[in-house]
Amino acid sequence: MVETRKVQVTGGSTYTVSIPKDWATENNVSAGSEVEFYPEGDSLFLTPRTEDERTEGTLDIANLDGDELTRAVMTMYVSGFDIIALESGRITTEQRRTIREATQSLVGLEVLEETRDRVVIRDLLDSSELSIHNAVTRMRLIALSMLEDAIAAIAELDDDMARDVIQRDDDVDRLWMVVSRIFRATLRTPKAAEELGLPREVCFDYQSAARQLERIGDHATKIAHLTLNFEEPVSEEVAEALEELYVEARKVVDDGMDALFTDDADEASRLANDAREKVQAIDERARKIDELLRELDPARAQLLGLIVDSVSRSADYGGNIAETALQKAAPTP
């Protein structure tokens, strides 16, 4: 329910306005309490000031194990809890192993306390030290290098390179979790956005782009797994066609990311529109490669067709990033 208040002047120069009693009661604000103000454009956000800024969450893991327990820990992390207490009547050895592995896969987490029925994990990173821009930039570098090496692994039938690509997907996933955690923090409190030095709309754009980069990393990993199924190298003609498709797909992603990062609206629009046009050209190139594969053994052609599809989808994700960049460059209502 929207409530309105009239601004009054006290002391001849101070503007004052009352706050709703129900809101004050729910947030433990009373006479003498301190509140914080955060300006954002033509809005002014007010929030109660708290001494302890570390948020703690407790989760009963009695019926959780394996992937389900891992996802639970990751969800608590992304949701923004600084201290995560995992409790059960008796935590099994297997659960402890899963918790340690989940903790090691997330940036900044460390096991703080461990007893028979309780494991406490704490985020040791200061939120003000995190940079969503740097995290997304790093995701871009890793995801595109994975895609490049995955295509090279096919041409050279290099199983070691393919396995290395698969391992690097963990790095992309780890950064994706960091970006998601930062973004959700900006939704929860204006202070998080102020510490980042970025408007929340921009944080949303970065989070949207990071999701696309995470998917590109997944497709690079898929290509690497498919490569391990080849017993003989692909022909030079097919290898060159895949390389050319990758180069064009990378241009789409690079143009989309450059458009997202630039502060020049005209330049962002130019780069983003170029990227979107390239996506259509890639679709045509992918169809020509599919025609080339029809001459091969059906099983081999199917594997290569899946690889072509993954590269094409990576270009589509670059097009999605370009679309986000266009929205970011558009005039603010």
Automatic annotation (TrEMBL):
GO terms classed as biological process: intracellular phosphate ion homeostasis; negative regulation of phosphate metabolic process
UniProt-listed SMART domains: SpoVT_AbrB
UniProt keyword list: Coiled coil
UniProt GO molecular function: DNA binding
Domain SpoVT-AbrB positions: 9-54
UniProt keyword annotation of Cell membrane present: no
Descriptive protein name: Phosphate uptake regulator
Organism: Halogeometricum rufum
